[in-house]
Amino acid sequence: MPKSIQDLTDIVCAFADERGWANNDPNQLISSILIELGELAEHYQWKSRFPEFDKQKKLEVGYEFVDILFYLLQLAAKSGIDIEAAFDSKLPKLHAKFPVGQTDEEFERTKEEYRRTGKNKLYS
Ligand SMILES: [Mg+2]
């Protein structure tokens, strides 16, 4: 059954609430994201290409993605961040900043402009 980001957020927050974990502070959540990211990274460490995971490994790696998502969605929800709204707002700006067919020169000019001015077009 397809679930939206809001559906997943509701599930994750209810799961935490039911277990008395809803009072995790931001530092605990950020630390947990980084720890889980490290666990995910172990599956890719020293690999220069995407590995062809077997069925069991796909399950293990998938669970690490879920672990990260669990903490990330809680952090966003407790911070009052609506990820779906942020995504919808940011995507058109990313399209404008990195248009399809952009040459390497144009891409470098955009990066240089940001380096020089400190102005990120995404927020203007
Ligand atoms: Mg994990």
TrEMBL record:
Source organism, top-level taxon: Bacteria
GO molecular function terms attached to this record: nucleoside triphosphate diphosphatase activity
Pfam families: dUTPase_2
Region annotated Disordered, chain positions: 103-124
Coiled coil start-end: none
GO annotation, biological process: nucleoside triphosphate catabolic process
Protein name: MazG nucleotide pyrophosphohydrolase domain protein
Protein's organism: candidate division WS6 bacterium OLB20
